[in-house]
Amino acid sequence: MKILIATGIFPPDIGGPAKYAKALFEELSKEGHNVKIVAYRLEKKLPFGVRQILYFVRIFFAAFRANSIIALDTVSVGFPAVVASFVLGKKIVIRTGGDFLWESYLERTRQELPLPAFYKIMPKLSFKEKVIARIHQFVLSYTDYIVFSTAWQRDIWTGFYNVLPEKIRIIENCYSEKKQSNIPSEKVFLGSARNIVMKNLGVVEEAFLLAKQKVPDIELDLKPYGGEEYERRLRDCYAVVIVSLGDISPNTIMEAISFNKPFILTKYNGLQNRLGDYPFIVDPHDIKGVAKAFVDLSNEVEYRKAIEAVKKISFVHTYGQIAKEFLQILNNNK
């Protein structure tokens, strides 16, 4: 089968989506398929709307020789890819990834509105955001299949958008097999992230400062590392912290689990069904509650308990399995 993967970023770009695109490309190729990547290039420097038009031209001509298209987001590449697939009569599968509408709203308003609350109340949107919402609905209406990485996002979206149930599939993100980590020499909480509203870094820093008054030897690292540098720091860290306003399928936590690293995680996440009764799940608006999690996890007894809880999270879902699940969809096997 000739498969075209549409993605906004691809190595040497860093980040979870780039890693996912590369791994999917490799695993589909291993299965004997002819796979081509069309990633953003000049489009990265262009304004919203213009970049989608340029990408449409590129994906349109690339899709001529493809049997199927897999698009790894809904707006940046998903929208142009769906239009191209409709014109050319190609099968297309859209993987949602994050939530561009919600993140755009947070960046514009600076409001700390969690993902479920955003869709429940649906605040007043700007013109650009209304366009994005319409793009979401268009993509959901005209794609052959829509792939969510979690049931949590599926339920949020289907409660707001109109989408045929028979189009919906869930392909969970990659959960790697357990890896060897290092015994931490310092109590460094790793919270590597972009400084955007959704990541809620202000609350993380404020809560940490409160905790440090009680536990002076803890440290916080929020620098946005990538690739091998991030893995090195993850391997060496004491614990991971994500207190975002919503994380659909956080790669950071899945990687922490693979290294048996304890973590502090927002309650607005799509992984809860895999985490069981893991204790350090927090409200991202509760600064004192987050501070308490820092303090409690710094305690040796609680830290050991957290490690044992992480060790019990044994679910493995490889990129090879993910590729096979995409192929099942493309082959219409339910």
Give the secondary structure arrangement, pairings included:
Elements: E1 2-7, H1 16-30, E2 34-39, H2 50-63, E3 68-71, H3 78-88, E4 91-95, H4 100-109, H5 115-121, H6 127-142, E5 145-148, H7 151-158, E6 168-170, E7 187-190, H8 201-214, E8 218-221, H9 227-236, E9 239-242, H10 251-258, E10 263-266, H11 272-275, E11 281-282, H12 287-298, H13 300-311, H14 319-330
Parallel strand pairs: 1-2, 1-3, 3-4, 4-5, 5-6, 7-8, 7-9, 9-10, 10-11
Structure characterization notes:
This is Glycosyltransferase subfamily 4-like N-terminal domain-containing protein. It is a single chain. This protein is an alpha/beta fold. The protein folds into 2 domains: 186 residues, Rossmann fold (3-Layer(aba) Sandwich); 125 residues, Rossmann fold (3-Layer(aba) Sandwich). Helices cover 46% and strands 14% of the residues. It is built from 14 helices and 11 strands. A 6-stranded parallel β-sheet has the order 2-1-3-4-5-6, with helices on both faces. Helix 4 packs antiparallel against helix 6 and helix 8 crosses helix 12. The longest helix has 16 residues. The chain is globular, with a radius of gyration of 20 Å.
Describe the structure using short key phrases.
globular; five-stranded parallel beta sheet; Rossmann fold; six-stranded parallel beta sheet; 334 residues; single chain; 14% strand; 46% helix; alpha/beta; Glycosyltransferase subfamily 4-like N-terminal domain-containing protein; 2 domains
